[in-house]
Amino acid sequence: MEWGYEADHPFDEHGAQFAQAGLSFYLCPGTSSWNSIGGRTSNALGNLRSAAVNGLQHGASGYLNTEWGDNGHWQTLPINYLGFGMGAAYSWAWEANRDADVPRVISQFAFDDPTGNFGRVAYDLGEVYRVLGIEPHNSSVLFWMLQWPLQEVAEGYRETVSPATLHETLAAIDRALAPLAAAQSHAQDAVLLQREFELAARMLRHAARRGLYAIGAPDRSATELDRDLREIIEEYRLVWLQRNRPGGLSDSVARLERSRRDYHT
Questions:
Q1: Which partner from 16, 17, 75, 135 sits 20 to 30 angstroms from 240, CA to CA?
Q2: Which domain holds residue 192?
Q3: In whole angstroms, how far apart are CA 182 and each of 23, 34, 120?
Q4: What's the pLDDT tens digit per position in 56-82?
Q5: Where are the alpha helices (H) located in 59-116, listed in sequence order?
Q6: pTM tops 0.85, yes or no
Q7: Do the beta carbons of residue 231 and residue 206 sit within 8 Å?
């Protein structure tokens, strides 16, 4: 099982080694959703495509698409749909799907939305991570801004992420979510899907504002950030239990509560 989650993971090199050794092997990419909140679209597509191309080239016996919950499962279910859908498309029929219009087909087949808007939101919200200009391994800056203590955020990003970049990020989040208002999904869970995307966007916004606060350029007070994160946690609990068993919820919430305590010091 060759696990690898970056777009440049050496599936080619390692696949060739497995084939030369006569081993039966799977290539195992992923949705790039964990440690991100909103996904990492470009990385996910590069990773999924590479696994498909090199799996075919080197005779892999399987393709295992993965999704994880490292450091708290903060991504809601539909953040994964783009990765689930395109992983299926590339692995089952690479030549037919290699040039697919990703937002359109994901909107149609994952969200049952003929307008294309749900797919566009999924795609664009998953591109917000790139606005920061820094792409940490297997994660996004906004995730760490929400996960780390404020002092660590300041030490890690004061010199590398500017207030202007974080304001650009906030604007990008709003642009990414805007098409949701015109979506027309026929899925039975369409209302919940919208709620899940809105929660993801709110968490990303909070992460950006937490970053501004940490680097000394706040646009919200500690009291306002505390109230916002408290409301996020309440909504997160409710949304989690709409689809999922309680297992894992307490750990994921505890990580948000830990970040919230920073606003009380």
A1: 135
A2: 2-264
A3: 50, 27, 11
A4: 999 999 999 999 999 999 999 999 999
A5: 81-92, 94-97, 102-109
A6: yes
A7: no
How would residue 100 be classed by pLDDT, with cut points 50, 70 and 90?
A: very high
Number of domains in the chain: 1
Which residue pairs, CB below 8 angstroms and at least 24 apart, start in 67-72? Answer: 67/30, 67/31, 67/33, 67/34, 68/30, 68/34, 69/34, 69/248, 69/252, 70/34, 70/35, 70/138, 71/34, 71/35, 71/143, 71/147, 71/255, 72/147, 72/251, 72/252, 72/254, 72/255, 72/256
pLDDT band (50, 70, 90) for residue 265? confident
Taking alpha carbons only, the member of 75, 69, 82 closest to residue 31 is 82
- List phi, psi (to 5°) of 49: -65, -45
* Cα(195)–Cα(108) distance, integer angstroms: 19
Query: Is residue 232 within a helix (H) or strand (E), and if so which, with residue range?
Result: helix 222-243
**Nearest Cα to 31, choosing from 7, 65, 1?**
65
Q: In Å, what is the CA distance from 199 to each residue of 58, 79, 233? A: 41, 11, 10
Q: pLDDT tens digit string along 120-162?
A: 999 999 999 999 999 999 999 999 999 999 999 999 999 999 9
pLDDT, one tens digit per residue, over 40-60 is 999 999 999 999 999 999 999
CATH of the domain at 6: 1.20.120
Cα separation, 7 vs 192, in Å, equals 31
For residues 262 and 239, the answer to whether their CB atoms sit within 8 Å is: no
Q: Which one-letter amino acid corresponds to residue 161? A: V
